[in-house]
Amino acid sequence: QLQLVEAGGGLVQPGGSLRLSCAASGVRLRDYTIGWFRQAPGKEREGVSCMASNSAFTKNSDSVKGRFTISRDNAKNTVDLQMNSLKPEDTAVYYCAAGPSLFGLCVLSPRHFGSWGQGTQVTVSS
Prior knowledge:
Layout: E1 3-7, E2 10-12, E3 18-25, E4 33-39, E5 46-51, E6 58-60, E7 68-73, E8 78-83, E9 92-99, E10 115-116, E11 120-124
């Protein structure tokens, strides 16, 4: 059974950077669509970035485009999210997720992902 564990959250000042990492166990992550989502208090879970199972297609939300980059390391069975130029509105609990292959595409919708990590807190504040 696929299990996901996130790491790398913390407190950072506006304009700073953080790198989140998600380690998978139980299955080969290369066979899955992967994604990062976030949820701020009182708000719905929001798709941030996703990558197709073949790693040839990625999608970022408009709110993070140009600042966040998703990547995967199939040898380590991990998926990362590099976050640059962080803003206070990026503050949220961040979750990594995995879902079935979508034939070279990915969709930033939670309903396309069946496995979730426990989340890691990211706080952007001065």
